[in-house]
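Tokens as discussed.
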């Protein structure tokens, strides 16, 4: 079994993706998938990384 990542570890991974155009596209793709799965859009002032982390934490994908 793969050890669960902490919120901080996952946040660092997501921030690293912001550094490249391909990474930003991946983040936008994740946003669309998570929005479809949860039925809740990202609030206007919420950062993309926060939105992704909240969803992943609620799904038990990250701990902490």
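Sequence:
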């Amino acid at each position: 079994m793969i050890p669960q990542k902490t919120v901080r570890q996952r946040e660092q991974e997501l921030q690293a993706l912001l550094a490249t155009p391909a990474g930003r596209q991946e983040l936008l793709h994740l946003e669309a998938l998570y929005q479809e799965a949860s039925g809740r859009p990202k609030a206007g002032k919420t950062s993309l990384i926060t939105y992704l982390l909240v969803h992943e934490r609620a799904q038990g994908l990250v701990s902490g």
